[in-house]
Known about the structure:
This protein is α+β, with helices and mostly antiparallel strands. It folds into 3 domains: about 140 residues, Maf protein (Alpha-Beta Complex); about 70 residues, Dna Ligase, domain 1; about 50 residues, no CATH class. About 25% of the residues lie in helices and about 30% in strands. It contains 5 helices and 12 strands. Helix 1 packs parallel to helix 5. The chain is flat, with a radius of gyration of 23 Å. The protein starts with 7 loop residues before the first strand and ends in a 17-residue tail after the last strand. It holds the Pfam family DUF6671. InterPro entries: DUF6671.
Amino acid sequence: MNIFSNRTASLLTKHGKELVLDEVLPAATGLQVKLTTAYDTDLLGTFTLETPRHGSQLDAARKKAQVGMELLGTDFGLANEGAFVADPYTGMLPWNNELVILIDQQHQLEITGFSSAPAQNAHAYISHWEGLEKFAETALFPSHLLVIKPTDEYHPKSIKNIGTRQQLKEAFEWASANSSKGVIYVENDLRAFANPTRMENIRQATINLANKMNSLCPACQTPGYWIQDIQRGLPCNACGMPTDQEITKIWGCLKCQYSDKEAVKTLRFANPSQCKHCNP
Length: 280
Ligand SMILES: [Zn+2]
Ligand SMILES: [Zn+2]
């Protein structure tokens, strides 16, 4: 038993995210997920430029969770918000940050799960059908759906939900006929139901959320007791300069002042291969 057992959380989405949230949360935490599609979340911002996105990823998720709670009259609200960026290591891979939030209005609590991983996100300008066929293959079509626009990404018209070869061909012909330059713009559809690699990342963020929901503060039993900060700077074994290696994880409560330090390793020094001085 916990504060989530047999309670219901709203989930506002039109993009099939209930599939993974409903698979993970009731089994792991007892929290039931109730879907509403009564508000178009695209009005809060889209990936395809029709509506610019305002505020941070967290603000956007919060807003969706609040709208969902109002629509269904629940004390708990769930929402997901994703972002596509360049990967933090090489800047070359399409990288996907997913956030799943749970708001508990009764206890004034906000718990967030995160996942960061590669996810399929590609685009191209195409003038020939053969080029489009080649692009589609590298873009993981047809498991991942495509969006096509005439001319460029700023064109106001598009065809979405392209998931068969026949649809691809028709969209190509439509966009070519409406293009002012003879080229069409094609991209992966980033909406969750259209992008299985992104959906998997939403699942990982939901699992992270469930783990936090099940982690209770040793002092006050509030859920969401988790790592709040990481101290880095383990000294290099050769030169003694601080490295990026972790020294301690600092756990903290969302409600009270309780916190605890967890030593990351028994190591007292970092390997010189991790040192910017010895191994830049
Ligand atoms: Zn506490
Ligand atoms: Zn060193």
